[in-house]
Amino acid sequence: MNLPPGTYTIREIQQNGWTQTLPDSTYAAVITSGASIIDRDFGNNNTGLAVGDEPKIPLRFALYQNYPNPFNPSTRISFDLPKASIVTLKIYNLLGQEVATLIDHQQFVPGSHGVNFAPRNVVSGAYIYRLQANQFHDAKVMMLLK
Questions:
Q1: What is the pLDDT, as a whole number, of residue 99?
Q2: 20 to 30 A from 98, CA-CA: which of 49, 109, 117, 126?
Q3: How many whole angstroms separate alpha carbon 89 and alpha carbon 101?
Q4: Burial class of residue 50 in the structure, from the number of CB atoms within 10 Å of its CB (0-12 exposed, 13-18 middle, 19+ buried)
Q5: Closest by CA position to 116, among listed 106, 126, 99, 103
Q6: Is the pTM of this model over 0.70?
Q7: Closest to 23 measured CA to CA, from 32, 33, 31, 11
Q8: What is the SS3 assignment for 34?
Q9: Torsion over CA of 13, 14, 15 and 19, rounded to 10 degrees?
């Protein structure tokens, strides 16, 4: 879509086959001549279902290695849930200090999910991300290179 330069208010409507991962809200997008609004993260993730498809439910809980790793400026953390779960996903430095909370006790439906992490004001180094979903706990290490 070719939009003329200007400031636009964008509100994404949740649709079937999509999972809301960020709070429902309205966003402002400033478009300059030739700018693209493709690939902006508004917090919805396509579960890969077409209308009429049966959902593909994972068989077990899983936390995957972030991609890319090492990363700069952002990375994606993906996980599978075989059943509805209350999810918390946090980032820690190697001293065990919390750096960021990406998901905080939010209800998720069964399926494959992911969240982007684009840290600001964080130094290069190793970080630990930890997923808690019901009784499942797992952690992995990622590297930020600036």
A1: 95
A2: 109
A3: 6
A4: exposed
A5: 103
A6: no
A7: 11
A8: coil
A9: 150
